Amino acid sequence: MVPPPSNPAPLRPAADCSKSDLPLEPASAMDGVRLDASTDATQTSLLLKNTGLLSVVVIPDESWTTRLMVARHGNPTDPASVAALAAVIGSGSLSAVSALPTGFPASQAVIVPPGWAVCALSDDVREPASVRYLRDKASSAEYFVVKGLADQLVSRTRTSGATLLECAKSTLQLLKERPDLGDIQLYAEVLGAESDCRASYKALLSNDERAAQRTSTTVLNLLERTPQLLETTRLFAALARG
C-alpha cells in the first residue's frame, strides 16, 4: 500500500535577511544610486545593499506591510564607519527630507550610505517585501564629511562622537543656509578655521592648531575625490519579486 503524500510544511515569513541569497534586479532608478537586491524563497525578505555613489533613505511601502531592520551581516563594522553613520543619524537630517510623505515618522526611515545595507521584512507570505527609497543629498554630504573626519580621529581618541555629531549638524545647517554652494566650497567652509566643526575637532586635538590644520587638509583632499553631490529625488519603489 502506497502511503498518502504528506502535506508540505506551510511557508513562514522570514525572520531576518540572513537567507536572502536569491538575486533580484538592482534598484537604480536615478543617477548615483544602485541598491543590490536579494530575497529568500518566500519573498518576504528584501536585502538592499548600497553599492552606489550616494546615500539613500529607505522607508516602508505605502500599505505598511513591510518593516525595516538592521542588516547586521551586510554592514561595515569598522569603528570609523559606525561612528560616521551614528553622527549622520543623530544630526536630524531626516527632518529636512521634504520628499517623505506628510506626517511620516522619521523613526521609520533608514539612512543607507554607500557600503551599507538594510533589511526589509513582510510578515505575510502573501505580500512580498516592498520598500520605497530616494537619493538624499544632505545625508550624502554629511556622511562624506564625518567619515573623512572619523578616519582621522576615531583611532586617536574614544571621545570623537560629539565632534562628529557637531560636524554632521554643521554640514546640514550650511546646506540649508547656502544651497548654492559647490561641493568643495561646502566642505571647505564646514572644516574651515571659523566653523563650529573646526573648533570641535581642534579641541579634541588638545587645541593644537597644526594638528587641526593637518586634519583639515587631509580630509579636504579626501573629499575632493568623493562623488558629486546630487539633489534629493522623489520616492521610488523596490519589490522582492523578480
Mean pLDDT over the full residue set = 92
First-residue to last-residue Cα separation: 42 Å
Tally of alpha and pi helices: 6
Give the percentage of residues in beta strands: 15-25%
Q: How many beta-strand runs?
A: 9
What is the structural class? alpha+beta
Main β-sheet, in a few words? Answer: 5 strands, antiparallel
Q: Kindly state the percentage of residues in helix.
A: 25-40%
List low-pLDDT spans: none
Radius of gyration: 21 Å
The main sheet orders its strands as 1-2-3-7-5
Looking at the structure, what is the overall shape? elongated
What is the H/E string? EEEEEHEEEHHHHHE
List keywords for this structure.
242 residues; 4-stranded antiparallel sheet; 6 helices; alpha+beta
Please summarize what this structure is.
By secondary structure, the chain is α+β, with helices and mostly antiparallel strands.
Would you give an account of this structure?
This protein has 242 residues and is of the alpha+beta class. It is 33% helix and 19% strand. It has six helices and nine strands, in the order E-E-E-E-E-H-E-E-E-H-H-H-H-H-E. The chain has helices at 79-90, 137-153, 161-177, 183-191, 196-204, 209-223; strands at 22-27, 35-39, 45-50, 56-60, 66-70, 110-112, 117-122, 130-135, 236-239. Strands 1-2-3-7-5 form a five-stranded antiparallel β-sheet, with no helix packed on it. Strand 2 (35-39) and strand 3 (45-50) form a beta hairpin. The protein is elongated and about 65 Å long. The N and C termini lie far apart (42 Å). The model has no long low-confidence stretch (mean pLDDT 92).
